[in-house]
Design goal:
With 592 residues, the chain is α+β, with helices and mostly antiparallel strands. It contains 25 helices and ten strands.
Length: 592
């Protein structure tokens, strides 16, 4: 083993370990791996940033912009209202919802498809008097499965297509994934829709609604400002700062003359005002005594004063890319920076019962956020959270037709080979921007930049595995393990290895790591390179075993109240079923 081979293998092992630890952002880990590769001499310095101009990276960014256009114009909501059946049959509804999710994610970003359908799933669950847990995990898995069907359905497919171009001279085309991917997706959707949801533990499927889980009634009280109070005449922002210094407490409402008043920073507190305070009982009592406030009882629902025509309460789940992740809530200064309040936090379906200010936010946490209606949705998006309820976009039929037509032409141009995907979808993204199908302030925010950085940084590292000959060492080791076995066994082992890696790191990173190994395994055994690359493509997207294997798994963890082991209960049989279907289909379609 040469120095370069040893270096790149150690670098890869360290990178994967850091990915698994989840202590640092994966895009920063990828950049660190790239720079260490350059310093170690395995990645040429003059090619260090070639990954950022890679066709797969450009295509991913363009498709994300187009996905946002399809959402913003109301096209997806139009499809959703037309295709979902009006039924109270739970298995049928789950299957229909999952089928729709899989269809959408075949042509748009699968995280975007989940973000659009998750509020729909929650509303359907409440309408059918079922807990969201019965629908959300099946929906998350279905939106992952749908990405298997087309070239643009998921980043691993784009990466695999480029590796094929480097090896055989021609990339996979738009629908080359369809025969295998569609078979896997259909079988997977039917399984999770009709049978798989029953594998979710009963206690998860009996959970109350998310709002009930917060139990904020026990932590909200009314405090009246008496005559002579030191707070009278002070601007609300000064009162809030003074109140907050008295403990972990928030002012979440203001009632004046039996009317809900919008909490504006410059509005002054008056005698007789009723402040709606949210904190633990001991803190409420201490703060009331400190400022001479009078805790009063009321026959009305106090929590009803938390929202009004101008103020709304929104439940939002913290995404894996959120800037809140890992930070104590107190350090974010929500009210001062964003003019919103965090009323309560739910984690894995259970309310947090400690100090909110010291709670470190995790991906999958559900925050109950209060703020002015025009501002709160913007704040939620800017912080990398997804709302669990949303108003359907009003369809603009002109923009729907134009955006759909542009997207269809791009797909056709890619399918017939007129334009490469990066160019076709790049032009389509530019056109939907020009026709203003994407809001101006969302052109760049619609792109998942951490994934772009991850791909751009890891592609040269993956190339170094090939250029140093390290893939030969890995292939030889696998060859010894499968010596004398049929080709299908080698293909199956490659897919199992890819699934295990994809369960703990980003699926695009798994494709970058495993594609060169798959190519070498095929060449060493005299097998079809296409078959082994297709195996990597399918396996890289089958991240169903853990909540960290895919963004979609993480996003439904909090709203569904799932625990880590719940993913294994449904994900393991689904993964086995996929292997049973995918391996024969790959052999049938691509040969060995």
């Amino acid at each position: 083993m040469t120095f370069d081979q040893a270096f790149i293998l150690i670098l890869l092992a360290v990178t994967l370990t850091m990915f698994i630890s989840d202590r640092w952002r994966f895009d920063l880990i990828a950049l660190g791996s790239l720079f260490l590769g350059v310093v170690g001499g395995v990645v040429p310095a003059n090619h260090a940033f070639d990954g950022f101009s890679h066709p797969a990276v450009i295509t991913v960014a363009a498709v994300l912009v187009i996905s946002r256009a399809l959402s913003a114009t109301g096209a997806v909501d139009l499809i959703t209202t037309r295709l979902l059946p009006d039924t109270r049959n739970l298995p049928l509804m789950i299957t229909a919802l999952c089928g729709l999710g899989a269809f959408l994610s075949a042509f748009m970003n699968n995280v975007g498809a989940l973000a659009l359908l998750m509020p729909v799933a929650i509303q359907l669950a409440y309408r059918m008097r079922r807990p969201p847990a019965a629908l959300l995990m099946p929906l998350a898995f279905a939106t992952i499965l749908g990405g298997l069907v087309t070239l643009i359905g998921t980043p691993p497919n784009l990466i695999i297509a480029d590796y094929r171009a480097q090896t055989t001279g021609a990339p996979f085309a738009m629908f080359d994934f369809a025969l295998v991917g569609l078979a896997v997706a259909v079988v997977g959707v039917i399984f999770v829709g009709l049978f798989g949801w029953r594998l979710i533990p009963q206690r998860r499927r009996r959970r109350r609604s998310q709002r009930q889980i917060f139990d904020i009634e026990d932590y909200v009280a009314e405090a009246q400002v008496p005559p002579g109070s030191q707070l009278i005449g002070l601007p609300f922002q000064d009162v809030e700062e003074a109140i907050f210094e008295g403990g972990d407490i928030a002012i979440v409402g203001l009632v004046r003359a039996d009317e809900q008043i919008t909490l504006l920073p410059h509005r002054r507190v008056a005698e007789g005002d009723i402040l709606i305070l949210e904190a633990e009982p001991e803190t409420l009592t201490y703060t009331a005594a400190l400022f001479g406030l009078k805790i009063i009882s009321s026959e009305r629902d106090v929590t009803g004063d938390l929202s009004s025509d101008d103020v709304s309460l929104v439940e939002a789940v913290v995404g894996p890319r959120s800037r809140l992740r890992g930070q104590p809530l107190g350090a974010t200064r929500f009210r001062r920076r964003y003019h919103v309040n965090v009323i309560a936090v739910s984690r894995e379906g259970r309310p947090h019962r400690g100090r909110l200010s010291s709670l470190r936010v995790r991906a999958g946490d559900v925050l109950l956020v209060q703020g002015e209606r025009p501002r709160i949705q913007q704040v939620i998006r800017s912080l990398g959270m997804l709302p669990l309820s949303r108003s359907p976009e009003q369809a603009n039929m002109r923009l729907v037709a134009l955006t759909g037509g542009i997207f269809a032409v791009a797909i056709l141009a890619t399918t017939i080979g007129w334009l490469p995907p990066a160019v076709a979808f790049g032009i389509a993204a530019l056109l939907v921007i020009l026709i203003k199908a994407v809001p101006t302030d969302e052109i760049y925010t619609s792109i998942d930049w951490p994934v772009i950085v991850l791909l751009g940084a890891l592609i040269p590292v993956g190339a170094a595995l090939e250029s140093t000959g390290a893939t030969n060492i890995i292939t030889a080791f696998i060859g010894q393990a499968t010596e004398g076995s049929p080709a299908a066994v080698s293909l199956g082992l490659l897919m199992v290895m890819t699934i295990l890696i994809s369960s703990v790191i980003n699926n695009a990173a798994a494709a970058v790591v495993m594609a060169p190994i798959g190519i070498k395994m095929a060449q060493a055994g005299g097998y079809s390179v296409d078959a082994f690359l297709m195996g990597v493509a399918v396996a890289a997207s089958c991240a169903f075993l853990t909540p960290v294997g895919h963004q979609n798994n993480t996003l439904v963890m909090g709203p569904g109240g799932y625990q880590f082991g719940d993913y294994l209960r449904l994900g393991l049989p689904l993964t086995i079923l996929i292997l049973i279907v995918a391996i024969p289909m790959i052999i049938l379609v691509w040969g060995l």
